[in-house]
Amino acid sequence: MVKPYFLLSKLIKIKLNQVITLQFNQIINNKKLSIKIEFNRNKGLICYKSFICLELAKLSQLDSLNIAQDIADVFNQLNPDISTQVSRNGWLEFTISDLLLCDWLKKLPLIRFPQLPTQQIKQDLSFNLYYTHARFCSILKSAHQQQIITLNNPQFKLNQWQIENYQEIPYGALPLRESYEYQLIKELVIITELINNKNQKINYFNILNNLSKVMLEFESYCRIWGKVKKKNIQLSQARLGLMALALFYYQNLFYGQFERELPQEF
Length: 266
What we know:
Elements: H1 8-28, E1 38-39, E2 47-50, H2 52-60, H3 64-78, E3 82-86, E4 92-96, H4 98-107, H5 127-145, H6 180-195, H7 204-221, H8 227-231, H9 233-255
Antiparallel strand pairs: 1-2, 2-4, 3-4
Helix pairs in contact: 1-3, 2-3, 5-7, 5-9, 6-7, 6-9, 7-9
């Protein structure tokens, strides 16, 4: 069973259920509500949405927008790390705060991937799929050698390595919102939701390609060495921590599908 703090949608669902029970217990009257939380891909931020207020409106004969606003007001009071707003159509929208994202990143090394369906790929895989892995391994190993971070096993064997003291990585130093760091974090959030959704058919090959693209964009624009290392070592460490998480996801997605080896260098 996936822990709630890994699935942000599950965390929101738990908190939303508490608010609804608190505010509308008499209306619900032991009826079983189907609270669905969806990732909102139309938002640039890491945001979720729910139409539960429309269902509550049918039960109570009250206006869905008023119900949504009441829930949003109480939710925001109880959960300052998740900003809740009401859309024009009465949907609730939940935006994850930077502080909660940083806390989420520190827990990710504990996640365990579900077993993925192995695919029989006849054609050659693209160069970028191999290069992404080799490039990230090379950067992390170099950072380990320069003692910016410490790896417990710089051989990068699947699920047998991580950054030591990963809970202390200063993710708060990352420039979030509309940054390449934020886009990579968002991709990890999306993947975490997708691989744990048993009701949705998933193209894991597309997921891997998308992750490779975002990882390479991050590597191209997010500096670690030079002035950044000299003047803001915490930013370098935070970016390296994010790289380690992305590589951890990448390896599990790749080896979970393909019976091929990934290079650690070219």
